[in-house]
Each structure stands twice: as C-alpha cells, then as structure tokens.
C-alpha cells in the first residue's frame, strides 16, 4: 500500500514539474513566428482603396516582432524616455494595431478622452497614421515601396476623389 | 449783424451734422481698440512638415468636400511640384518664398509645395492654406463684415455681403484669399473655411485632416496643439527647429507648423510681424475721433481770427470815412 | 467756339437775358447760344474732339467687356496683386488731386481770403468732378459694383479703414455737390435755392475740412494693412496717413493751377476779365502755399525714415528710386514754386504745378503697384486696363469741359444772382 502511494506522489510531482515548465511564460514563447499569419488583410481605407494584402511572412524575415508590434510583445524599449516608466514590459493579449490605435482619431468623442489631465500620451496616432508612420519610415530607409498605390490600389471612389483614370480631367 | 447771426447758426448746424457723423463713425474706434480675449477652446491643426510626404490626399479631399472645380491634373500627378507659376521666377532674390511655389486660387483652397533643402536628403513638403488667425487681418480690414471668426476657430466668409473690394487680399500677410476673377456676375473670395459648414460646426475634423495618411495634420484644441508641438520638439532633439510657426505670427494663428529646417527654407514668411496686423492701423484709427471733435473748434477759431481782422479793417475804414 | 464768341456780341452767355431783352431758353443755354448746326460744326472742327472720339471708340467696348466677362479678362489683377490701375490711378491719384475743393473752400470762406474768390469755384468743381470720377473708377474696379451701398445700409463693418473712406467719400460728395450748386442755380435761375445753400456755406466748409482730412489720410492708412508687402521706404505704420494728407494739400493746389492754366489757354473765350487778370497773382499765391506743404512733406518723410530706422534702405536700388521720386516729384517743383514767387514768374509756377501733379500720380502708383510686393515679381498692368483708365479720364475731361463751357465758374454771372 505505501509503496503505491509514494509511487503516485512521485508520479504527480513529475507531472506537475513538467507541466509548470510549460505554464511559465518565456520570452517569445507565446509569439512564435511560426504562429504568425502568412498574410494580413488590412481594409481600413475601404472607402477609397482596395484592401492591402500585407505579406506578413515576408516581413518576419526582415524585422523583429517588436519593430512593428511595438510595446506589445514584451520587449524592453531602447528609448530612454520610455524606459523611465515602461521598465517592466508585458506581452499583450492581442497585438493587433487597432486595439490601441483608434480609427476615428480626430472625432470629438475621442478628442474628449484626451482631456483627461492624467493622460500622458496625448499624441498617440490614430490607426491610419500608425500604419503609415510605422511602415513608410522603415520603407524609406530600406528601399521599400513608398508610393500610395504601391501598397493599395484605388477603387472607384478613390479614382473619383483623386481625378484619376476614368475621372481624369479632360484638358490634359 | 444779421449776416453774423446766420453764419453762427449755420455753423452750429454744420457742427451738429459733423458730430452726428462723428458718433456714427466713433463706434469703430471702440471696437478696434478694445481688448479681445481670443476664443480659448478654439480648434486648430498642427502641420508637421517632417511627416508630410507630398501625397496630395489633402488637396483631393478638400476639392471634393468643398465642391471645387475639377483640377487641371489628377491629384496623384506629382509633376505639379515642378510647376513654375510666375512669369519671371528669377526675381526671387531675398524673397520670402524660396523656389517655385503654387498658390491657392479660385479652384483650390489648399496646395502642397515641394522644397529641396541641402541639409535633408529627401524633399520636404508643406501644405499651405488659410491659417485661421486669432485676429485675422482679413476680418479687421473688411468694411462689410464679410468675415467672422467662429468660436470653433474657423475664419469664415459670407459671400452675400461682399462687394469685391479685395482689401482682404491686400491685408492677409499670408497671401491666402483668392478672388474669383473669372466670374463677372458672381465673383467672391475663395479660401479655406476649415470645413466649418460641413464638419467643424459638429466637432468633426476638416476633410484634409481626415485624409492625411501620415497624420502630418493633427487636429485638436489650439492650446493642446501648442503642448503637443513643444513635446514633439523636445522628444525628438535635432529633428525639429525649436519654433512653432503660428504661435505668435500675425498675433497667433489656429493652424500651427513644425519644421525640420528653418521656416524660410520651406516657404514660410519669417518676417510676418508677431502681432495682429490691425496693430499697424491703430495709429490712424485712433486719430479719427480726435479730428472729428477738434477740427470744428480749431477751424471756428481760425474763422473768428480771420473775421476779427476783417472786422477791424472794416471798423477802421468806417472811422476814416 | 472762339470764332463764335468773337463775332456774336451776345456770346458767350453770361446772363439770363439776351441783348434784345428776350430770355435764353435752357436748350439755348445748353447749346451755348448756337444753333444745332453751328454747334456741331465747332465740335468737329476741334481736333481734340477727334482724339476723344478715338479714345471712346477703343475704350467703350473694352469697358463693356469688363462688365460682361469679368475683371479677369481686362486686367492682370491677380491674387498676389489684387489692386491695379483703376484704383492706383483712378482712386489713389485722383482723390488727392481733388483736394482743391476743401483747400480753396477753407481759404476763401474760413480764412477770409476773398482775393482767391476768382478760382474758388473752379477749385470746388475740380474737387467735385475728381471725387465723382474716383467713384466711377471704383465702380469699374469693384467685383460687385451693384453692391456699392452695402457698407452703408446692408452690412456695416465700422472697424475697417475702408468703412471710413466709403462713408466720407459719400458724405463729402454731397457736401461738394452742395458747394457747386450755387453756380448751377445762378445759371438756371433758381435764386432762392442758391441763397439757401449759401446760408450753410460755413457749415459745409467745416464739414468739408473734417471729412477731407480723414479720408485723405484714410487712403494712406489702407496700406498699413500690409506692412510687410510695401517697401519700407514707402511704408510707415505710424505716419502713412499723414504722408497722404500732406501730399493731398499741395496736390490739390497744383491741380488747381494746372486746370486754371488749361482754362486760360484753351477756354479764354469763356473766362471773364477778372479771372484772367487775377490769375497770375493767384497762381503765385497758390504756388507759395503748395511749397510750404511740400517742405513739410519732405520733412515728415525723413522723420518717418528716421523713426523706423530705414536709412540703410536709401543706399539700395529701391532707395535711389525713392530719392528720385522725392526730388523730381516734390523737391524740384518746390524750389520752382519758391523761385517763381520770389521773382514773380507765374509761368515757372505753372511748370512746377504740372510736375507736381505728375509727382503725385507717380507716388501713388509707386505705393500701390510698384513697391507693393517688392519681394515678389513685378506686375505690369494689362493694356486694356490702361485703355479703360484713359477712357474714363477722358470722360472726366469731357464732363469738366461741358460744365466749364456753361456754368459761371470761370466768369461772373451778370444776371440776377
């Protein structure tokens, strides 16, 4: 009888030990590049442009996760002004840009939230600005596409807005 | 004797007429010299020349929002930046506009201009439109009150009272108001109105701000924008010139600018006075009521002096006769 | 007309009644006492009238084009240069030259200098027509001329300098009409009306001085709205209004000398003996007054430069142009006036007056067009703008002549008055 109990305890101990190794979060453990989607469809500008078929797989080879998904993957910032407060970074549950960056950045309701006197980051860009500021800056340095239609093609409404294609001015 | 009485009576009549005219015109003096506490919660836009990539989305959005005429070239045609607008562009020695510049006209409320600056390896772009001054020169120069500064910050124009005198175009230090010279029967001033009728009244940002992909246009309360601008300069040492254009220029404007290089290199007039334009007119406006009141007495005195000499002469002639 | 005046005893008309006792009808008065055929004959015999017809033939269609197709078709007025010749010449030049009205009104009625009476009416007429045609020029330039009454009755913006100009020009025009009406009433025979207006002459004169001081100054103050756009030498935030007012004083006097000279030369038949005999002395007197105003003007110009510490600009190209304008337009005629007065040479004074009138126009066009936007490109007025300007100025001359031929301005009315 005692021999079987000791055997059960030892067994349970090893199961718990092995399980705990799985449970403890390790850097990068949750965000394995292999888990990342191949492509991401970004259609925030659908009024004027076709959706962007963003080649995520390609970008994984060129940049670290934290280069684009800043503040959300648990890396410590290298900027001195940020570390002052953010010295214990955590991984976020979701790293989608739209979780932090709102679409209607300059609408009166969002602007009203910025009146909070305790709010520090008042100039966090909106979603469209976040995408472009983050992407274009790096593209300019690395020689990636920087023109508007290099990433997203105009749809009909867009062509109308920009007087392009069938909406081009007659006197050319 | 009778002649003198008539003169005095008619003089008093004339004096009253003058005083009546004076009181009608005196009002302008109190309005011009009074203190104006600018609308503290007015909205503005911070334009970041560093962020602008010259995509012209703002021009396109404005064109459609304000129902402006079709442009000459599509909005994604970037050859417009090389356009040479003036007859003889060489005469820009020492001018405040460096290089060829497009300007607003009756078909466009805003334009983006391109500037090549030696210290930066890529061209800089700067959006130009009405700056919606706190004490606009156009408003203070208009004698039919065609301009209004709204509490939301926009300087708007009423074409129903405008007579087409074009003094506002003379007054604006930024050369913004444009006149619809092409129209014979319905000309009017055309300028950016901060999308007041369609958006700003409801608290929404103007079309150009919404369109900008790089958030080079940042919409918010003017006081907050000054904070944000200073913070951006501080947090990015070396990337911005330590000056927010529009903080004090022309007495302060609601559209503010940040630039990576000195402002005259990207088409700004750095000699615009740091006070409202109306300050330069005050010297004259203040003497107006003085003349209206002092002149009658002064010239009555001259007349009495002159008459006295004649009266003396007359008396002398009579005595001698 | 010279021919007819010499040969017919009762011409030129200077009385209500003809020599045989019958009364001149209005039609006869209008036709200068000639038959219609004779009138037409003398009109076409005058080569000046051919020039006038040619100017109108070119100018009228272009003016119509301006009104039907818009300002953009006849001017180079642009968004950088909103004001062109219509305002620079028609308004800013003609108004100071019309200052003779309040100058002579003040001199004769207020200061009691009755010796200037012979030219007083001419000065008043000069003032009235100058202002009236300045308004005509304004109407041609205004984007929406049918809205001219708006700053008075529809939407008032009293804080603006132009508001003062608008109100004053309108009021002053009425004052000037009232001041010229006595000669009209004499001519037409409405003597009660004339006496009524004469009873108000002092009030009208004082009103005239107040209004003129302010709006002459206000036209200068208009440019203080653009402190950065005018060249610093032509711009003085503190004193611009004073420059314009002071130059209006000698501008008006000089224009009066010019007009009286032209009347003496080309309308001799219309002038009476008193006018012709006293004109030389009066010319010298006017010149003397003008020279005082001119030395004052030069002094305040340099005070303004000192006040704004602009001496360094005098050594640039623009500075040399500025000094040229000041010396040829003001200093030279001032010396001529002084010399002429001292040595009793009215001809020299007349020359000085012509130069001064040119100098005023030069200064105003320099201020409004040439030194405006001195940092940008230079704008050259469109030839059509010039054509319309010339045409309207010709219309002014024609109107002037029409009135001078008839009303008792250059001569004393011999009938009841």
Secondary structure elements and pairings:
The complex is a heterotrimer of chains A (172), B (321) and C (417).
Chain A: H1 2-23, E1 39-42, E2 52-55, H2 56-62, H3 65-68, H4 80-83, H5 108-113, H6 127-142, H7 148-151, H8 156-162
Chain B: H1 2-33, E1 43-48, H2 57-65, E2 111-115, E3 124-128, H3 137-141, E4 147-149, E5 155-157, H4 167-171, E6 178-179, E7 189-190, H5 207-211, E8 217-221, H6 222-235, E9 255-258, H7 282-320
Helix pairs in contact in B: 1-7
Chain C: H1 2-7, H2 26-30, H3 36-45, H4 47-69, H5 85-91, H6 94-97, H7 100-110, H8 117-141, H9 150-154, H10 161-188, H11 191-198, H12 201-221, H13 240-266, H14 273-307, H15 317-343, H16 346-370, H17 383-406
Strand order of the largest sheet of chain A: 1-2
Approximate shape of chain A = elongated
The arrangement of helices and strands of chain A along the chain is HEEHHHHHHH
- SSE arrangement of chain B, N to C: HEHEEHEEHEEHEHEH
Give the biggest beta sheet of chain A.
Answer: 2 strands, antiparallel
Report the total helices of chain A.
Answer: 8
- Report the total helices of chain B: 7
Strand content of chain A: under 5%
Most extensive contact: B-C, 84 and 75 residues
Distance between the termini of chain B: 20 Å
How much helix is in the residues of chain B? 25-40%
Strand content of chain B: 5-15%
The spatial strand order of the largest sheet of chain B comes to 8-1-9
Plain-language structure description:
The complex is a heterotrimer of chains A (172), B (321) and C (417). Chain A has 8 helices and 2 strands. Chain A has 172 residues and is mainly α. The relative contact order of chain A is 0.10. Mean pLDDT of chain A is 80; it is low at 24-29. Chain B has 7 helices and 9 strands. In chain B, helix 1 packs antiparallel against helix 7 (282-320). In chain B, the strands form 4 sheets. Chain B has a 3-stranded mixed beta sheet with strand order 8-1-9. In chain B, strands 2-3 form a two-stranded antiparallel ribbon. A two-stranded antiparallel ribbon of chain B has the order 4-5. The longest helix of chain B has 39 residues, at 282-320. With 417 residues, chain C is an all-alpha fold. Chain C has helices at residues 2-7, 26-30, 36-45, 47-69, 85-91, 94-97, 100-110, 117-141, 150-154, 161-188, 191-198, 201-221, 240-266, 273-307, 317-343, 346-370, 383-406. The A-B interface holds A 81, 105-108, 111, 114, 122-123, 125-126, 128-129, 131-133, 136, 140, 146, 148-149, 160-164, 168-169, 171-172 and B 51, 53, 55-57, 60-61, 63-64, 70-76, 122, 202-205, 209-210, 212-215, 218-221, 224, 227-228, 231-232, 235.
């Amino acid at each position: 009888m005692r021999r079987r109990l000791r055997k059960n305890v030892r067994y349970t101990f090893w199961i718990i030990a092995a399980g705990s190794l799985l449970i403890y979060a390790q850097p990068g453990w949750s965000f394995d590049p292999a888990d990342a989607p191949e492509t991401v469809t970004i259609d925030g500008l659908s009024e004027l442009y076709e959706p962007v078929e963003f080649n995520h797989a390609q970008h994984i080879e060129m940049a670290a996760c934290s280069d684009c998904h800043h503040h959300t993957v648990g890396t410590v910032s290298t900027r001195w002004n940020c570390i002052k407060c953010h010295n214990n970074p955590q991984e976020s549950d979701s790293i989608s840009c739209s979780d932090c960056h709102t679409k209607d950045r300059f609408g009166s309701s969002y602007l009203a939230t910025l009146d909070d006197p305790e709010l520090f980051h008042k100039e966090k860009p909106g979603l469209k600005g976040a995408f472009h500021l983050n992407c274009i800056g790096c593209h300019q340095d690395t020689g990636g596409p920087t023109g508007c239609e290099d990433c997203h093609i105009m749809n009909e409404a867009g062509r109308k807005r920009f007087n392009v294609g069938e909406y081009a001015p007659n006197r050319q | 004797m009778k002649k003198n009485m008539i003169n005095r009576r008619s003089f008093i009549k004339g004096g009253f007429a003058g005083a009546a005219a004076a009181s009608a015109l005196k009002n302008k003096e109190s309005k011009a010299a009074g203190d104006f506490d600018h609308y503290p919660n007015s909205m503005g836009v911070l334009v970041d020349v560093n962020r602008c990539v010259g995509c012209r989305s703002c021009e396109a959005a404005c064109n459609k929002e304000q129902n402006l005429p079709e442009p000459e070239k599509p909005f994604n045609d970037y050859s417009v930046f090389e356009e040479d607008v003036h007859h003889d562009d060489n005469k820009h020695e020492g001018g405040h506009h460096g290089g060829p510049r497009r300007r607003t006209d009756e078909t466009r409320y805003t334009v983006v201009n391109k500037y090549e600056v030696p210290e930066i390896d890529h061209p800089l772009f700067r959006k130009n439109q009405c700056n919606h001054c706190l004490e606009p020169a156009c408003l203070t120069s208009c004698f039919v009150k065609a301009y209004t500064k709204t509490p939301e910050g926009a300087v708007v124009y009423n074409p129903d009272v405008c007579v087409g005198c074009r003094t506002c175009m003379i007054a604006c230090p930024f050369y913004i108001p444009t006149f619809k010279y092409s129209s014979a029967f319905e000309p009017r001033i055309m300028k950016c109105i901060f999308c007041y009728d369609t958006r700003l009244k409801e608290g929404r940002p103007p079309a150009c701000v919404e369109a900008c992909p790089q958030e080079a246009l940042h919409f918010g309360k003017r006081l907050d924008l000054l904070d944000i601008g200073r913070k951006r300069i501080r947090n990015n040492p070396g990337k911005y010139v330590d000056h927010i254009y529009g903080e004090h220029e022309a007495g302060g404007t609601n559209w503010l600018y940040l630039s990576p290089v000195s402002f005259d290199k990207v088409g700004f007039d750095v000699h615009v006075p740091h006070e409202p334009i109306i300050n330069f007119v005050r010297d004259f406006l203040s003497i107006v009521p003085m003349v209206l009141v002092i002149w009658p007495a002064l010239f009555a005195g001259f007349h009495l002096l002159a008459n006295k000499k004649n009266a003396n002469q007359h008396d002398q002639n009579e005595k001698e006769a | 007309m010279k021919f007819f005046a010499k040969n017919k005893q009762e011409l030129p008309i200077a009385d209500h009644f003809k020599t045989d006792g019958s009364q001149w009808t209005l039609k006869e008065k209008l036709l200068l006492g000639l038959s219609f055929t004779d009138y037409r004959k003398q009109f076409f015999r005058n080569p000046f009238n051919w020039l006038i017809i040619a100017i109108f033939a070119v100018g009228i269609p272009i003016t119509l084009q301006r009104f039907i197709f818009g300002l953009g078709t006849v001017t180079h007025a642009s968004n950088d240069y909103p004001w062109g010749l219509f305002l620079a010449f028609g308004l800013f030049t003609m108004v100071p030259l019309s200052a003779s009205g309040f100058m002579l009104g003040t001199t004769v009625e207020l200061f009691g200098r009755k010796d200037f009476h012979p030219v007083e009416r001419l000065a008043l007429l000069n003032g009235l027509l100058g202002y009236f045609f300045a308004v005509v020029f304004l109407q041609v330039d205004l984007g929406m001329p049918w809205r001219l009454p708006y700053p008075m009755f529809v939407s008032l913006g009293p804080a603006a300098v132009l508001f003062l100009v608008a109100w004053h020009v309108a009021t002053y025009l009425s004052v000037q009409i009232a001041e010229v009406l006595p000669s009209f009433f004499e001519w037409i025979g409405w003597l009660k009306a004339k006496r009524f207006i004469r009873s108000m002459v002092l009030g009208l004169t004082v009103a005239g001085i107040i209004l003129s001081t302010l709006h002459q100054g206000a036209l200068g103050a208009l440019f203080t709205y653009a402190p950065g756009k005018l060249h610093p030498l032509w711009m003085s935030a503190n004193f611009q209004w004073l420059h314009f007012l002071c130059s209006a004083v000698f501008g008006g006097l000089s224009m009066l000398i010019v007009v009286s000279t032209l009347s003496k030369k080309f309308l001799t038949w219309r002038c009476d003996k008193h006018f012709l005999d006293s004109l030389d002395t009066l010319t010298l007197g006017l010149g003397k007054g003008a020279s005082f105003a001119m030395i004052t003007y030069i002094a305040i110009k340099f005070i303004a430069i000192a006040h704004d510490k602009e001496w360094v600009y005098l050594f640039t190209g623009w500075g040399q142009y500025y000094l040229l304008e000041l010396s040829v337009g003001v200093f030279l005629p001032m010396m001529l006036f002084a010399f002429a007065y001292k040595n009793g040479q009215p001809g020299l004074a007349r020359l000085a007056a012509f130069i001064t009138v040119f100098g005023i126009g030069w200064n105003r066009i320099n201020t409004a067009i040439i030194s405006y936007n001195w940092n940008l490109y230079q704008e050259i007025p469109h030839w059509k703008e010039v054509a319309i300007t010339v045409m309207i100025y010709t219309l002014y001359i024609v109107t002037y002549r029409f009135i001078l031929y008839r009303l008792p301005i250059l001569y004393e009315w011999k009938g009841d008055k």
